[in-house]
Amino acid sequence: MGKAVYAVVLCALIAGSNGILIKYMTTLNTGAIAFFRTMVPVVFLAPVLFSKKHPLFTGNYKKMLLASAINVVRIYLYLVAFIFTSIGNAVVLFYSWPIFVFVLETLHHSRPLKARQAGVLLIAFAGLVITYSDKNFSFENADVIGMVAAVLSAITYALTVLMFKSESHNYSKEQTIVFQNLVGAFFFIPFLFFVPDATLDQLGVGIFYGFLIGIIVFKLFFYGLKHLEASTASSLMYLEVVSAMVLGYIILEEELTLNTVLGGALIIISSYLITRIKPKNG
């Protein structure tokens, strides 16, 4: 269990570079960035895809492919979030995903919602309201587009975490990573034809981004997820928020608004508290 904890902590710290790398590739279209994010892991792990000794398409592979398809939406929304709003806004809103893990688990198991659980969810909702409250709500407002995308990405990510977790005993870490990216790797290919201004540096960063985030980060995360409760792995990933904000402040000189700090604090606190609650089956 100790190694699993360290793996998720390291995963979170490395994942904090996500926003920096995405911001650097803004001359690429969102779909092209998503292509590198998904295709690079599949290419590097091609032996897993074609292994005869450990076939990929065994067990409940249809569920894994469905999770992979949902992940296409999740990745696109995630990239939109970081492109349209600040790293601080995107990362704190995305980290509402443990709340959605809890909500989805509760609905799936038909558990009654206790007063303490409802209180924590209200704290999370208050955090979302505060984070949005200094923005003029308009779909022409880039910040709002990015922030809405971050929340929607959090919801879809929570769903895929639970789906991959439910099948983690049937697949290796490498197989899980391949499934996570498989549908997206082919779905995003057409977007490569719309990047005429891409430089070799940006293409290189795209490949590095796909390897670092698509393989290293998720190999560490899925290792931890296989040996830890989904809620425990979720709580350890909060370090990504700190890592992302520090990198955004130092490298991009992004300012953190009071609303982002206060709202983000409520979201992170509520997300942490929700992972400490062990609901009983009702």
Automatic annotation (TrEMBL):
InterPro entries: EamA_dom (IPR000620), EmrE-like (IPR037185). It comes from the Bacteria. Residues 4-132, 145-275 form the EamA domain. Pfam families: EamA. The keyword Transmembrane applies. SUPFAM superfamilies: Multidrug resistance efflux transporter EmrE. Keywords: Membrane, Transmembrane, Transmembrane helix. The chain crosses the membrane at residues 35-52, 115-132, 144-164, 176-195, 207-224, 236-252, 258-275. The keyword Oxidoreductase does not apply. This is DMT family transporter. It comes from Pricia mediterranea.
